[in-house]
Amino acid sequence: MEEFAALIDALVYTRSRNEKLRLIAAYLQATPDPDRGWALAALSDGLDFPAVKSSTIRNLLKDRIDPVLWTLSRDFVGDTAETASLLWPAPQEPPSPPSVSETVELLSAMNRKSVVKELPKLLDRLDSSGRYALLKLATGGMRIGVSSRLAKTAFAQSFDVSVEDVEEYWHGLTPPYADLFAWAADGAAPPDIENLPTFRPFMLAHPLEETVVDLGDYAAEWKWDGIRVQLVRAGGETRLFSRSGDDISATFPELLGVLPMNAVLDGELLVRGNVQGGEAGGAASFNALQQRLGRKTVSKKMLKDYPAFVRLYDVLLLEGEDLRPLPWEQRRGRLEALASRLPASHFDISSVVEATDFEHLSQIREGSREDAIEGLMLKRKDSPYIAGRRVGYWYKWKRDPLLVDCVLMYAQRGSGKRSSFFSDYTFGCWDGDPDEGADLLPVGKAYSGFTDEELKKLDRHVRGNTVNRFGPVRETDKSLVFEVAFDSVHESKRHKSGLAMRFPRIHRIRWDKPPHEADRIEALRALIAD
Amino acid sequence: MAAPFSWIKPEPHGIYIPPADCWVDPSRAVDNALVTHGHADHARGGHGQTVATPETLAIMELRYRTGAEDDAGEIPHKAVPIEYGETIRLKGGVDATYIPAGHVLGSAQILLEHAGERVIVTGDYKRRADPTCPPFEVTACDIFITEATFGLPVFEHPPIEEEMRKLLDRLAAHPDRCVLVGAYALGKAQRVIAELRAAGHHQPIYLHGAMEKMCRLYEEHGVDLGELRLVADAKKGDLRGAIVISPPSALNDRWSRRLPEPITAMASGWMRVRQRARQRNVELPLVISDHADWSELTRTIREVDAQENWITHGREDALLRWCQLHQRRAKALALVGYEDEDD
Ligand SMILES: [Zn+2]
Ligand SMILES: [Zn+2]
């Protein structure tokens, strides 16, 4: 655990990407199996120990130090694991640190009851850095500035294999990745995932921004407002994955028995309806889909009221053949041919948008708000299907955001790098005429859209204009106007205003604008799309 | 007879002493000021008269040119020097005694006495040894007005020798690079230099231009800092394998580009918290502070054992809570204009 803790600390304080890669690679080379496999898992996807939650740590600490002092410390530090590692009383005995795999074994063996006795024993065997590494490892999500991609890249570099291959095998394997190390480090045969229903990395798009493309080279498709999914059938099993590779099969059981052949398909998950693209579009709003998301079990009524289907964009693998190296145009041909073999009840194909030229396409895009569609996708006709985001192949061209002026109501401390700043803002619109005494009602929350300089200024504003404190939350004097950009607005029970924005972000800070000139709830309500 | 302690009033802009018409560390210009030490949030320019240690007055003179003449050729500011252990009688029968606070050169706690009542204003202080100033002296009083900059139990400053070792080890491991240490220009920089010398590092240490005058002032007051050179006068090659000291604000700015692949370090108590170090892009955090950490704060409150503790700038909430838990009377003062020093 000492080497792992030293690696974590070094990574925390390293800015340079190359240096991070070097540090991880050096660790992976020097550390034996299975320790390095567990470490790689911790750095990439994170490990999950159901018995150890942030709340478990909090409760352990509150038994050892005054709860008020704990909360004040946690608010200041901004990270439960780090606060606990700093506050844990120094053990009487000199530390006798366990190895990473022993740690993983012990953590896995804990249950909700035993954790209260066993986790302290483990903490007592470590110094402050070790405790930090342990708690980060135990609660998953290291959040130390190392992305899953970076960890995999470091793995690839340290054993001189391609990171694309690593990504390809990754989702078919489980920690501590013995097969992966055997292949990369010891020259064994690559892991065999062909007959496993595993997730393949998505190809992603860049925003179009200022670029103009030649429609001779690019095809346009609608960007539907659902969630991007991958439907995989292999080895007699079908699975549905979200964009991040999470298995969401259980949430959409109706899609698991309808794919008749082995394939990996890329598409948009939608609910039947007539909002997106009208009657012909055949899809309900994102809000309708949202009724289905995140559920562990699905009622018959849900299935009937919100029937889901996949609108296909692409085909990656088909009946044992890897189509990804083919140009988009050819894959599109294969997809169209394939679509006729799929049940129309659960599949259709995202049509290509025809436009005479870029100007014409741009007019079509303007209409996408009325059609409740997110915008357009532009795909190079000769582009292979490549994992990740490659410049020049695919672009997303979203419709312009909606804007509304809101008043800052509450601010909360951020987490991680922003833990010393009030960086999460709740804002509201007027519920009537503010000059007649109307109140503000919260309509949304945003954490982004401002520069570091602006963040400092906002933080100062919050500190200087606080009227109430509720733990980490400050209520401000409602004197600052934000121009908030968002993609759409929907009815919602989450806010008292009955409205919820999608993707709200601070577009401009209106230091100049008097708060009574901010928008009213009615103005926002008028923008509801469904 | 007046009510107890009615002669001392915490106001938003400092501690006010009505019978003497005098302020301690006021955050705006006043006629009569008692100043604990030279840091900007305690010592401001523009006072009519300032009572402080000779070192603090010299620092204020350097920073605010308080000795400058006006158009009429007179020096409008009156500097009243007072040595450690010395007592000065103010108007209205208030006595002020300056006692070492162990914070930076010239730093003092101010003991105020009136009508048999004793109040101490600590300004900033620490309890660790510091080669650049005499140590904090525990002094009995009725009301103890303490700072709380590091008033959270997560703050524990390690022994400075450990931090010096980290710094020198890193320097030795990268002989082609330099280690750039961000350190507050008054106090921290000179303490780090003096501790480096004590740890056996006798090579020239390079300074950002903004540090030079304060280092010279320390030397004039008898603090030996060894051979100091300016980065501006050095060739890039000279800086390889060297330690460079700059104000924290210069760590990530254009200025540092002239250095040979600097390893960015920062000497501050805030470095105890990883995210604080990350915010400043610090690669080598050095947990070195001129303030009392949590255990020093609580130990000092116990040792001074005043009837009442007033807590000023910093994390008052937590120290107040500790006082409650330990049955010590305490209240937090809402002073404005005090900031977290880059410390
Ligand atoms: Zn100070
Ligand atoms: Zn201070």
TrEMBL record, chain A:
Transmembrane segments: none annotated. Residues 301-431 form the ATP-dependent DNA ligase family profile domain. It catalyses: ATP + (deoxyribonucleotide)n-3'-hydroxyl + 5'-phospho-(deoxyribonucleotide)m = (deoxyribonucleotide)n+m + AMP + diphosphate. It holds the Pfam family DNA_ligase_A_M. Its EC number is 6.5.1.1. Keywords: ATP-binding, Cell cycle, Cell division, DNA damage, DNA recombination, DNA repair, DNA replication, Ligase, Magnesium, Metal-binding, Nucleotide-binding. It is an enzyme of class 6 (ligase). The keyword Phosphoprotein does not apply. GO terms for molecular function: DNA ligase (ATP) activity. PROSITE patterns: DNA_LIGASE_A1, DNA_LIGASE_A3. NCBIfam families: DNA_lig_bact, PRK09247.1. This is DNA ligase (ATP). The lineage of its organism: Bacteria, Pseudomonadati, Pseudomonadota, Alphaproteobacteria, Sphingomonadales.
From TrEMBL, chain B:
GO terms for molecular function: exonuclease activity; ligase activity. Keywords: Exonuclease, Hydrolase, Ligase, Nuclease. The keyword Cell membrane does not apply. It comes from the Bacteria. Its EC number is 3.1.-.-. Residues 30-179 form the Metallo-beta-lactamase domain. SUPFAM superfamilies: Metallo-hydrolase/oxidoreductase. The keyword Amino-acid biosynthesis does not apply. PANTHER family: BLL1145 PROTEIN, CLEAVAGE AND POLYADENYLATION SPECIFICITY FACTOR FAMILY MEMBER. NCBIfam families: Xnuc_lig_assoc. This is Ligase-associated DNA damage response exonuclease.
